[in-house]
Every structure is written in structure tokens, then in C-alpha cells.
Fold this protein.
Amino acid sequence: MNHPELEVENVKIRLENHVASVSLDAWLP
């Protein structure tokens, strides 16, 4: 059973977490 919409949500969440981590790293000295 494939759930492409779940896969898309997982990718979106991972991407958001990645962007958040990169943003935090950029803000931290």
C-alpha cells in the first residue's frame, strides 16, 4: 500500500525541519 500524500507530508516536514535548523545555525554565533 502506497500513500503518496503521506510521503509528501513527510518530505515537507523534513524540509521544514532542515530549513529551521539551517536558519538557527545562521542566527547562532
In short: Helices lie at 4-27. The two ends are 46 Å apart (CA to CA).
